[in-house]
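Researcher: First entry.
Model:
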Amino acid sequence: MTSPPARIGAPIEEIDTPALVVDLDAFEHNLRKLSDFARKAGVRLRPHAKTHKCPAIALRQIALGAVGQCCQKVGEAEVLVRSGIKDVLVSNEIVGLNKLRRLAALAKDATVALCFDAAEQVDETGAVARDFGVELGALVEVDVGAQRCGVLPGEPALALAQRIASTPGLKFRGLQAYHGAAQHLPSIAEREKAIAGAAAAVRQTVDLLKRNAIACELVTGAGTGTYQFEAASGLWNELQAGSYAFMDTDYARIGGRDSNRFADFEHSLFVLTTVMSVPAADRAIVDGGLKAYSAEKGPPWVHGLADVEAVGVSDEHGKLKLGPNARPLRRGDKVMLIPGHCDPTINLHDWYVGIRNGRVEALWPISARGAVT
């Protein structure tokens, strides 16, 4: 881990760049908004740590009412549990004895669960749990339309739930029903339709479990783009949104309820850069490129500067185009960029720099950065 790019109390101008910056007012607004929504809707909130990869943020979410965290990797779960998070769901299939043993070891200190979509995975995981003398929570992942992991709804999901329920060392907790492909559908009508289809699959499976006397404690899933629909369905009782804390350009592009803009949450995550060259009046180069932010969704957006557009990205450089109404940029000027995709951008940095009123207020290590196993 590198040294922090700033010191507490320093003005923004003194932050070493490129740096991952969090606007604390917008960030705290986002956390409160989804927490309040979940409470009023009567559902649990389990934010996704694959987005932030930071125990300091996880603990803030839990302080506002979240029941725990979910994550995608055993390494992320290890960081969370060792930092005091007591309830972790690995919302993914875990394969391989070494990974399963690491997960079972965590269950000595926390409530730990994972997802299943194959009978052999159930058998292998149950054996490891018994060897460690622990009980692991187990959820059947149902393919509700994403066509990624998961068994088909109905009878295939029932069969796997029955196998889990009869396997010592495992406790059947319910269903993982996340429709990832729905999160960025362009219109709110398309997202609502996609979750209606997912709800039909969930309802079929929940009814079948009930008819076979298998208690389904949890139906968990949902994301930032669709959380309202899952909560309103009466089926999901736990939400797994992650990006809501920060937002990015990919979410900003989708439509909302009242306009063509998804405005449920505010942009709070930025990559702060410095102008390193002004080779022409209509062009400036900043010191942040592909190694500072993800660009698979396109160039970042420039924040707070009118008529300035990011038009090119290379390893260590970002090219800005200055339109006729843009104010001139000079070497040393700071430029805030909104990344296209927050999750992989965060994984490129060691620290969050929290800012408020023009100064550095917080420094949070991104402790699970690079936890890909």
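Researcher: Second entry.
Model:
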Amino acid sequence: MNYIETNIPGAWIIEPSVFSDPRGYFFEAFKKAEFDENVGTVDFIQENESCSQKGVLRGLHYQLNPFAQAKLVRVIKGTVLDVAVDLRRNSMTFGQHIAIELSEKNKRQLFIPRGFAHGFHVLSDEAIFTYKVDNPYTPTMERSIRYDEPSFGINWRIPEGTEPIMSEKDKAAPSVLKEDFNFVYK
């Protein structure tokens, strides 16, 4: 696997070595020893999967400490624009974001450390999205930021004249940064 640190320290793009032949392909999606050596030790405790149609936008979500989550995300089917925003107050990249296309074709993964808001926009007709987390989902600690928060400047690649398909909760998310970002850059 090829580990590429992004312009935001702690966030990594992981490109697997894919072995193809007439039968199809094979790749190692996760190898703990290699991951720990390149990224650092993360104890993933759960893996989740979602299926979404074209135009769905999920996010931007995060959880407060001590329930913040590190995530390792990838797409099994389709294509998404995956976005992570640095909410670590003392980070030199606070408020900056990563936007990367993840797809069944490129098989890239994105590691998002604790202290980031995360979301994705489905670009294909359908997408199956999977992610590992290192902390359980804790509804009372979950927070959201509106996807179009102006200070982030995210280009979600939403076609002009259309609106993303979103949950009511995501539509109601605040559009300003909150004082409860108690994440610390490590």
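Model: Note on the second entry: The first strand starts at residue 2 and ends at 5.
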